[in-house]
């Protein structure tokens, strides 16, 4: 029951952690901005994701402990940097899990009950039921979790492929290509929906599309549950990103060919389904969206608690957080993570716009630190031991990380900070987004300080573990 993830299961887990709500629920967001440039935007965003994926994969061949970005940062730069990356990544991961859980509950209620069913009481009830189901799956052990992850991944890929091939069949049957018509689409006021393209809009579109590829950075958080992670992760993560990019580009391209206005003007919970008229195809896409969102919650439930477990193993959090059940599940780390994933969205009254910023910023902290960590590993400047048998490659371990760092810094600079810290109230006025401000304060100041002080006082004890013949004693 505790059989570990093999190579193809890691590939599917990575795909499962990436494909979530975006491609099903909000493709119109990128299409409205990029217009006919949308496929190119998804290609370029995918290339950036592959560059980062190669960087994380290169780090994984040097450090195969749990924790992903936390483990790499700590090994390269020492306790303090690793600690901050770990604790903020945990906070962001927990909140992101809560956001994804809320999305699947809201969407499911919208599909089967309509807008009137999306009450706060129903969302809370559905939220708790979903968390209970995820708890049962994860607590059953790696084998059942792997099966559930694989099934959900295959389900969401199947739904997206159905959309691609059904759209292709419609195009071949009718011969109509509406791809270019999107530039003439107008809203109810008669204004063009897609504005003229310039460099700023193009970069913003790439950034928006890139978020549909995130999630790969958390896969290695549970490296101990994988077979030969130092060998399989560097191959599996880039391959998974490539598959996802191919699917994304195919889906948005075919949807824009057959019915771009259906996507732009959709009022359905699953916007991608609006590109099709056939009820069977629409239902396959709708149910695929539900499976997709459920699957990404499985990935979050599996990976996120491992960050706390890894930090406890290293003596940077209380040791009880690394205690595992007979099925190999970090019980208390999972319960703490799930509690935060439930409590934060409820406390913010499910205001997703207010709390998602903490997840976005945390990702970019990793995207800046991990590339530099890989370079440190290559030049043997790391603070902690790494796998000495790792094969060094200048291109993947130095050139690619430099490109990843520069690109991440540029995108972070272009991040819409003013938009994230403002919101429109019921009167149509732009006001300060207090939810986002409090999310940042809690996740990046209060929580790190609150658990760092006991750590510096020596109240946490390090768990002595020999993880494999190639790893050092932690």
UniProtKB/TrEMBL annotation:
Q: Does the keyword Protease apply?
A: no
Q: Which InterPro entries match?
A: AA/rel_permease1 (IPR002293), APC_superfamily (IPR050367)
Q: Is Transmembrane helix there in the keyword field? A: yes
Species source reads Acetoanaerobium noterae
Gene3D superfamilies assigned to the protein according to its UniProt record, in alphabetical order: Amino acid/polyamine transporter I (1.20.1740.10)
Question: Where does it primarily localize?
Answer: membrane
Single GO MF annotation: transmembrane transporter activity
Tell me where the transmembrane regions lie: 7-28, 40-60, 81-105, 125-145, 157-176, 196-216, 237-258, 284-308, 329-348, 354-378, 398-415, 435-455
One of the Pfam families matching this protein, by short name: AA_permease_2
Q: Which UniProt keywords apply?
A: Cell membrane, Membrane, Transmembrane, Transmembrane helix
Q: State what protein this is by name.
A: L-asparagine transporter
At the highest ranks, the source species' classification is: Bacteria, Bacillati, Bacillota, Clostridia, Peptostreptococcales
Q: How does it sit in the membrane?
A: Multi-pass membrane protein
Q: Where in the cell is it found?
A: Cell membrane
Cellular component terms per the entry's GO annotation: plasma membrane
